[in-house]
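Notes from the 1:1 (GR / supervisor)

We went over the backlog. Supervisor wanted to see one worked example end to end before approving the batch request, so GR pasted a single chain during the call. The sequence is below; no edits were made to it. Supervisor asked that the structure be written out right there so they could see what the output format looks like.
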Amino acid sequence: MSSTTSTYSNPFTGPGSVDIRDINIHDHVPVILDATDSMYFAWKTYFSLLLRENNLVDRVDGTVHSHVMVGDSDWTAIDATLIWWFFTTISKDLLHMVVSDGDDAHVVWVKLNDLFTNNKLQCRVFLQQEFFYCHQDEQSIDDYCRCLETLSDELRDINAKVDDDLLLSMLTAGLNEDFANAATNLTLLSEPSFRKFAPYMQLEERQMKG
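Structure output shown during the call:
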């Protein structure tokens, strides 16, 4: 075996090791990634945590290339398991877009992430337009808050971070007229934040429907 192989971790061996083939992926990644929805940030976060927890980051970050590991049965088994995880947590449409015979886990991981992070400039312009023109209109407070959070997550994915002050400003600015008075109570909150103000507005909505 090449000396290069000594640089990678093997989750099948060592104290407290866990056979990753026994892991139920849907318990750890409880979302299905779809090209038309906004689950990319959640999907990648769940996977990143799982990979770190099981010392598998080097399988997808390009640290060790699979061609170096030819003949290593443990490496091959781990690689196949990761690919299976990816394929069973994405939609059929995405599967058809990325599946290709002979790809290792690193290649599949890169393909999936590239689908959501390529053309960052165009995506940023489009998402920022959506974000800054987002208003409650006929939406419930829950749906309105979820829309703002989703757009801010998508902007974060392309390194256009939306801080809490901006998120809070957009929430209050986009409320419909029914909540105009409630929005003025923002100044009464100590250390106001989106996380504090959103539940307050949800409570106001329930009282209004009374």
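Supervisor's comment: The chain has a mean pLDDT of 83.
Batch request approved.
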